[in-house]
Amino acid sequence: MAQPDSAPLTGYRIAVTSANRAEELCALLRRNGAEVCSAAAIDMIALPDDDELHRNTTALIARAPDILVAHTGIGFRGWMAAADGWGVAGQLVAALSQARIVSRGPKATGALRAAGLSEEWSPKSESSREVVKYLLESGVSGKRIAVQLHGAAQSWDPHPGFLGKLRSAGAEVVPIHVYRWKPTPVGGEFDQLLTAVARRQFDAVSFTSAPAAAALLERSRELGIEDQLLAALRTDVHAMCVGPVTAQPLTRAGVPTSSPDRMRLGALARHIAQELPARRSCTIDAAGHRIEIRGSCVVVDGSVTSLSGSGMATLRALAQRPGDVVARSDLLRVLPGNSTDPHAVDTAVLRLRTALGDKNIVATVVKRGYRLAVDDPPESPA
Q1: Which domains does the chain have, with CATH numbers?
Q2: Which pTM does this prediction carry?
Q3: Residue 65 contacts residue 95 (beta carbons within 8 Å)
Q4: Measured distance CA(16)–CA(159) in Å, rounded
Q5: pLDDT for res 3
Q6: In angstroms, rounded to a whole number, what is the distance separating the alpha carbons of residues 312 and 289?
Q7: What does the pLDDT look like over 260-289, one tens digit per residue?
Q8: 251-257 long-range contacts, Cβ below 8 Å, gap at least 24?
Q9: What gap in Å lies between CA 80 and CA 90, rounded to an integer?
Q10: Within 10 Å of residue 214's Cβ, how many Cβ atoms?
């Protein structure tokens, strides 16, 4: 049934892999008209009772660091919460306030300031490479550096060599692991989401962390569908990442990605709303109508109309060769179900015409096939 006026993502299906703030991202995408399915690729394991974390926190209170590096807001807040649970939060803040403080980005900066601490510098790029470059240029030999780390996963460390570079430059490094990532259980909702992505049942898949992107690739290998997944991500399913660091595992696998200029959740949602229609839609003027083909629907003269799988497959095949005759045999190959009956094409076209509301949009070419009745372009003024 046709519906007036469509939001930018109406007719598009998007897979969300986030572990944190997934509901917020889903709400933003749905507000733009998308059909959204969400399943976390990774689970976060908090380490408030970790012996190493407790031991290193105690050591930093006893002998304050010269430099503090905060990588993530969630990690730094988790560290403060753990210290509070041990009854030493005030002592930890007092020790850290004596240090030069470098923050990787706005979220970490917000967590620092909430604890009453002020950063001396933060890179606009939010890149750990710039952080380590800044520290090395300022001189770290003989310095005691506390580094609150990202929650790396076994399959992906977003900052390989970060600690090693500081140690090689003569620094004493105290690593602060507040949380870690682990893959979600096999056979759960994430596996179902991943399989649907590999089968091209989504128009886009979103990522907000590099470990999640790495987990997607790793799980596809475990399920034996890596080649199928990569083929989908390199063609019909668009990988939308919150930033270039998040995209790294995909980029290394040869998957094209896109990201917003600002690495924020709201910016990612806006980016998807702007970019996905431009990448996945096709607009054709036929039989006096403007037809926009979207992921799972078509917009005819501004009204949204749902199509069956066979109808969408037929319309896409015709739209790939606008105005040209497409043989029944070619249309039969694109229909779902692997039918060998040529009459399945005639049935699909009949239903497509009914759904589009004007039988003249798809023209019959006797004994040859079908074509879109593409309008002639308007003549240019003399």
Answers
A1: 13-41+184-280 (3.40.50.10090), 45-181 (3.40.50.10090), 282-372 (1.10.10.10)
A2: 0.77
A3: yes
A4: 24
A5: 43
A6: 17
A7: 998 899 999 999 999 999 888 889 999 999
A8: 253/217, 254/230, 255/230
A9: 9
A10: 27
